[in-house]
Every structure is written in C-alpha cells, then in structure tokens.
Write the structure tokens for this entry.
Amino acid sequence: MALKMKELTELTGESKSTILYYVKEGLLPEPQKPKPNVHLYDESSVQIVKFIKYLQNSFSYSISQIKSIFENNNFNFDNSFDAILDAIRALEGGNMVLLSSNEVKKELNLEEGELESYIKRAYILDKSKFNYKDIEAIKILHNAKELGLDFKLFDLYAKNAQLIAKDEHKIGFDFLKDDSTTHNLRYQLLFDIILNYKPYIFNSYTINEHKKGIK
C-alpha cells in the first residue's frame, strides 16, 4: 500500500519538510510519481522514519551517523519480525569494530580464561568476531570484576534476558502471522514495543527503585 505525504506525516508524527529531507539524504526511498503533484511513499517508510527517530532520541545520533548505519546494513523493512531483528542487529553492531577473541583479550588486558567465563555464564554471546557493543559490554564486566562487584546482578540480567527473548520472539512471531488489514499496525506496534517500550519499562523501574531507596 502506497502512502500520500499527508498519511505518512500522520503515521510518523514528522513534518513534510523532515520527510523530504530524509528523502534528499537517501534515508527514505524516492516516492513514486504517478501524476504531477502526487507523490506516493512505500509503507515501509513509516518504519524507517520510526527507526530514524529512535536512533536520534535514544542515542543522539546525527544524520551522518544514521546514514552510516544504513549504508553498513541491509535493512528490509517488510513488516516482518525479521525486519525488527535487523534494526536490533544494527544497534548491536554499533560502529562495527570487529575483533577476534584474542584481539579483545589483548585490547582489554583480560586475564587468562576471563572472556571464556563471561561466555560460559551467558553474560555475552559466543562469537567469532566481537563488535563495538560487545567490547563495551566485556569492558563493563571486566571493570566489575576488578572492583569486586557481586556478579549476581549479571546472572539476573542474563537469566531474564534469555527468558524474555524466547517469549518475545514467540509472541511477536505469532502476532505477525495475522494477514488481516491490521498487519501493518501490528508490525508498527511490535516495533515500538521492542525498541521503545522495553528499555523504557526496565529503566523506569530502576529509577523508581532508586527513588524509594533515597526516601
């Protein structure tokens, strides 16, 4: 389904000038022009704009940084659960620094067996190459070890992340099996839940608990 500019601005909350700017910068596909003064945008443009807004609001990324992310990833905003995973993979990749396990150990000056212990305890995933986000996570774990933090917190994160991920995928996949006219709305909702609501609810409870602790 193609969207007129008015429909696209209503669905995304962005202005016409912003939409045109994204097109000019190559972040949005060029619209179809079946008639003079009639521009029709692919429905995937809604998800693309939402993703751009998410990168700007959550990470303060500039347009040039967002362009780099788009250029280094093959996104397919096709209203499927895989498209949401593509967005998460892009964020996980960060600046796409890729290091082998030996390079990571040398870079962070890790002790013998330290990286392997983090993988065994499911604090990070086992990979042949580690990206920027992986390295940042390993650095946090290393600093926690150096400062003597109880790793129960990381055990809690790892355990619950795995449980949530399994249910999240099943519920999301089943939710998008529906082929009715609401499919696009379902996809948009799921995209917002995973990229926006999930970090919101976790951080909100952290802040709330902190407030209770200082009363």
User: Anything to note?
Assistant: The first strand starts at residue 2 and ends at 4.
